[in-house]
Amino acid sequence: MSDGRDDRVGRERFRPPEHPNDHFLLTTVVGSYPKPAWLTDVRERHEADGTAVNDDEWSEALDDASRLIIGEHERAGLDVVCDGEMRREEMVEFFAERITGYEFKGPVKVWGHSYFDKPSVVSEVAYDDPWLLEEFEFSADVAQRPVKVPITGPYTLATWSFNEVYDDAAALAYALADLINEEIRHLVEAGARYIQIDEPALATTPDDYDVVGECLERIVAGLPDDVRLCLHVCYGDYGEIYPEINDYPIDEFDVELANGDYEQIDVFADGDFEPDLALGVVDAHTPDVEPVAEIEANIREGLHVVPPEKLTVSPDCGLKILPREAAYAKLENMARAARNVETDLDSGAIDAAALRAGRE
Ligand SMILES: [Zn+2]
């Protein structure tokens, strides 16, 4: 950690006052969550010509949906919550619409019959108004629990855009990383202490791990030490970016491994895993709800890599493609499984040191 962020940010500040166990496996989400059906309906009516839903009504609908999903996360028993990205439709578009220098030139075909409104960078990117401040302030005000803020990472924003200005995607990514640093400063000023950078693009082009590393250095520059920075990378060949990620200036690395039945967990089990591990323990791609006992076994996989005080429990990825009741049931089972594993750690029924040493 080259910039002085030497003290890993403790998770204790996120432990709820009524937490029942000595051990604390922080439970949270990656970010996105299924939208209520009515929200999609209201959005379509708001976007229609001769609109039947005006801007004030649309804004009220977004507030209501955010309030609803934060409540759902809290009811499921999560320690750190989020609004399920109710205000965001797509992870690149949302930011491109807010960053000076971007322009939309119409949808492009991405696969099969799917279209993606891939944005173009047509002039130097610049920071204008905050992107997420209202979202965070509303969430923090409504939530009883601490709120995590997911932000699409600069490398993903850069590689999933047309670049008409910068020499290459790396140069664009660095410029975007500086803007994200500015955005996080505003969020931190407003009280945010848990930021997650989403870099799904790194999963498909792992050779660029050094570009992402430089982006992260820019993102954390000058941030207070008590800001917890998580990096989420979706399913890919983690062996291509580990152990390199040990040099990243992050507090937590969030991975998708339930989907691959933990075949890759050994990649990390060299005893030197540096950041906290945020382990995906429920699959974000199948609506089948994992039973509590199965999730407990998944959590124990993480204890092969890090001690309990460095293990965070989350779904594999954002849950937005799932039916809402399946998403909720997974979160509820996940929170229950985490509490059960904590109880077993407290009692000694699970020997974390033995798991880590590969003796169990
Ligand atoms: Zn993901």
Which secondary structure elements does this structure contain, and how are they paired or packed?
Layout: E1 26-27, H1 37-47, H2 55-76, H3 93-96, E2 100-104, E3 108-111, E4 114-116, E5 119-126, H4 133-142, E6 149-152, H5 154-159, E7 162-163, H6 169-189, E8 194-198, H7 201-204, H8 209-220, E9 228-233, E10 252-255, H9 265-268, E11 276-280, H10 292-302, E12 311-314, H11 324-347, H12 352-356
Architecture overview:
There is one protein chain. The protein has 360 residues and is an alpha/beta fold. The chain folds into 2 domains: 5-36 and 78-359, TIM Barrel (Alpha-Beta Barrel), CATH 3.20.20; 37-77. It is 37% helix and 14% strand. It contains 12 helices and 12 strands. The strands form 3 sheets. The chain has a 7-stranded parallel β-sheet. It has a 3-stranded mixed β-sheet with strand order 2-5-7. A two-stranded antiparallel sheet has the order 3-4. Helix 6 (169-189) runs parallel beside helix 8 and helix 10 packs across helix 11. The radius of gyration is 20 Å and the shape is globular. 46% of the residues are buried. Mean pLDDT is 94; it is low at 1-7. Pfam families: Meth_synt_2. One of its GO terms (molecular function) is 5-methyltetrahydropteroyltriglutamate-homocysteine S-methyltransferase activity. Its cofactor is Zn(2+). Residues 1-20 are annotated as: Disordered.
